[in-house]
Amino acid sequence: MPTLTRSEAVERASLVDVEDYHVDLDLTASGDTFRSRTVVRFRARAGAATFLEFEPADVVSMTLNGTPLPPSASTGARLELTGLAESNELVVDAHMRYSNDGEGLHRYTDPADGHTYLYQHLFINNAGRVLPSFDQPDLKAVFRVSVTAPEDWLVATNGALVSRDGGRWEFAPTKRISTYLASLIAGPYHVVTAEHDGIPLALYARAALAEHLEAQAAELFELTRQSLDRFHEMFRIRYPFGHYQQAFAPEFNFGAMEYPGLVVFRDEMIPRSAVTDSERERRANVIAHEMAHMWFGDLVTMAWWDDLWLNESFAEYLGSRVTAEATRFSDAWTTFAMQRKAWGLRADQRPSTHPVAPSRVGDTEEALLNFDGISYAKGAAVLKQLVAWLGDDAFLAGLNDHFEAHAYGNATLADLLGALSKASGRDLSGWAEVWLRQAQVNTLRAEVTRDGANYAEVAVLQSAPAEHPTLRPHRIGVGLYDRAADGSVVLRERLDVELEAVGRTVLTELTGKPAADLLLLNDGDLTYAKIRLDEDSAAAVPVLLPRLDDSLARAVVWAATLDAVVDGERPIAELVTLVLAALPVESETAVVEDVLRATRGLVDRYAGPETRPAALQLLAQAADRLLAAVQPGDSRQLAAARGLIGATTDTARLRGWLAGDNVPDGLAIDADLRWLILYRLSVLGSAGGEEIDAELERDRSASGEQWAAACRAARPDAAAKEAAWTAIVGDSTLSNRLAERTASGFWQPEQLELLEPYVERYFTDMPEMLRTRSGMSAEHIATMAYPSVAVSERTRQLAAALIATPGRNQILRRVVQDSDDDMRRALAARG
Ligand SMILES: [Zn+2]
Fold first, then answer.
1. How far is the CA of 314 from the centre of ligand 1 (A)?
2. Distance CA 777, CA 422 (A)
3. Residue 696: CB partners within 8 Å, gap ≥ 6?
4. Residue 329's closest CA among 382, 288, 385?
5. Which is catalytic among the residues 279, 290, 586, 588?
6. What does the H/E/C string look like for 268-307?
């Protein structure tokens, strides 16, 4: 994949002004290529030379201003142009390759019915895989798209449909958009349409998902309407891109992508089996997140990838906010506090940490690697803190001014800070310096001394890691929770505290007050920091946590508790005991799921081979108790069942559920739950290849195929492991998703002896995988295939050797460095 450097982009933007692209695609030929005829009209400095991104399979013809270009102008990655006029017309006719890695024009064949589906994904630098283009965010242009497709297909793009004649589709020109935002889907997609407030709405999914799309359309449209209305209340500029279409596409790398007028989601978001309410909440959040991008990212776009965070942090913040304020999922901030922030905190403490707003991203590859928990979750948490500090009115006024000043153009962090400063009357430069320009996280630790039953002194200790010593101002809530006579836990008082950027702040207002049973820093989750409870409060958590009514307060306590285990400050055994006590009475499904998932991950890596089986058994017991406690059909029932299936070693019980015996009332053993059971049986060596084949025969679907790949890779069988490993590292015909699912099943802490040779092979074989795969799917596969559960000094030595080898791929280096840092913590915690 060609990499574009920042300086190349700056230079090109100074030479070129793009008017429009007329892209004419012919998708009717068989084989691995499609025809792409493009006319690019652009202005340039007369006599200048420049280039476009262009990766053809072969070129039919190329002319610039009517003159044929020599074949050598196309280098395979770029199209070099010299002797430009002031006004130019480039005409290129070429065959381009379909992709199977989720970038460019991805082609998918549905095993359910043999239908073929395409979607286009050009982010971050893949536009050249579909058309010759000036592929950088600040060279916006109008796109006019025409498509010839098989007659039974549906085609949709950013622009509205103007005419259709059989397989010939013509679309209206778009507004000025960046190249990475040009979108297209094609195939026998099923469609459901509606309308809201003058905006045409549409939903698309594979024909095999038609029944599920129809069943879920009412909910999807309701969320879309609610979110649109809320954005229209907040923003002065109405939704600017005409229709609002949402497509659910197979093997999409991201959760979704914010193409103006045609958002594309991964089609796992149209589930065919039962899901929990928190999974529905996550989908609602993604819908709102992508819609937020219509203003932040699509209408006003970053000038260069330095400000990727501007896109993602805002969309993440507004996604949670709009979900909480406008939809039935009013606890969306609890999910954010538990799940999303943990993602940001982990990324922020790794060797690869970077500022939310890096001052200089050198090229597109580095930009892609910054596409992490820092750009999304930390950035959003920091914005939440900014809103707490500025006040909401000033925040929204500044945003609206920003949109109006830069609509259909590009803007930088400085532009945004200028607008917010003007609206609030506050100078934001100091705030931006510590929160956006400095990496890493502060720890806020409560320090309590008592005088009998009263506080003698309560202080907040703020610290930072030695290599990133910045302390920050924090505005936080401090909750005082007491245990009432009837056992319930009540909030006595919540202080609103402004902490200076100093190491120790005494909360004088608490001196002499009766000590609380639980003193909770960052109650309300306004700031971004690691939280540590005082000793007495920490000791009271097992008793108090189950009785704390406020789900957001519980999330803050859970997050602090899990984080203390991650850091090795608290033993994993203590966490498992807490889970056993608190999980069976937890009322929030999102908290149940996250506690089970996070604890399971820690048990697999932090508990040694002698202690892991017992810890896993306790985890299974916690899930089982919750399963027994909830009402049939409650979302927690499914969450508990999944947790139990994943942790139990009771194969007889699992086989019973598969056969329909002793299944809890209200729990449907549907297609995906059957596969989850079979997956666990595969890990435990209780299910063989034939049984997996038989299940796939029963469920010949996209999901079935992916599950089967994971199950096969998970079997403790030498031949199965070898086949899976070969597929992961060497089979580039395997699609992004099938390779990921194979990698996800490969490493199992139950199978360390069998897997021993593959620890070394990861480090010798992965560089080869990265020669044939690139981009986001390569990063996913390298991460999932890492021997994270082979926790040993030997693994760390191999990692160190790879990192020290010059010339290693940047993606692989980042994955290994970060995965190794996780292992460092696990080893330290094992002691
Ligand atoms: Zn986004």
1. 8
2. 42
3. 704, 705, 707, 708
4. 288
5. 290
6. HHCCCCCCCHHHHHHHHHHHHHHHHHHHECCCEEECCHHH
692-740 per-position pLDDT tens digit: 999 999 999 999 999 999 999 999 999 999 999 999 999 999 999 999 9
Task: Indicate whether 136 pLDDT > 90.
Answer: yes
Helix or strand run (H / E) with residue 427? none
The predicted-structure confidence for 327-346, as pLDDT tens digits, reads as follows 999 999 999 999 999 999 99
Question: Stretch 488-495: mean pLDDT, rounded?
Answer: 96
Share of the chain above pLDDT 70, in %: 100
Average pLDDT over the chain, rounded to whole? 96
State both tokens at 632.
């049939």
345 vs 310: CA distance, rounded Å: 18
- Please give the Cα distance from 183 to 197 (Å, whole number): 24
pLDDT tens sequence across 637-667: 999 999 999 999 999 999 999 999 999 999 9
- In the annotation, is 290 catalytic? yes
Mention every residue, 6+ apart, whose C-beta is less than 8 A from residue 785: 728, 729, 743, 746, 747, 762, 766, 769
Cα of 19 from ligand 1 centre, angstroms: 27
User: What is d(CA 231, CA 174) in angstroms, rounded to the nearest whole number?
Assistant: 22
d(CA 786, ligand 1 centre) in Å: 26
Hey, is 249 helix, strand or coil? strand
Q: Determine the distance separating the centroid of ligand 1 and the alpha carbon of 290, expressed in angstroms.
A: 6
Structure tokens at 634: 């409650």
* Å from CA of 168 to ligand 1 middle: 32
pLDDT, tens digit (0-9, with 9 covering 90-100), for 81-116: 999 999 999 999 999 999 999 999 999 999 999 999
Report pLDDT for 177. Answer: 98
Single pTM value for the model: 0.97
CA of 340 to the centre of ligand 1 (A): 13
Give CA angle at 172 (167, 175), nearest 5°: 145
Structure tokens at 86: 């002031």
Burial of 697 (0-12, 13-18, 19+ CB in 10 A): exposed
Ligand 1 centroid – CA 309 distance (Å)? 9
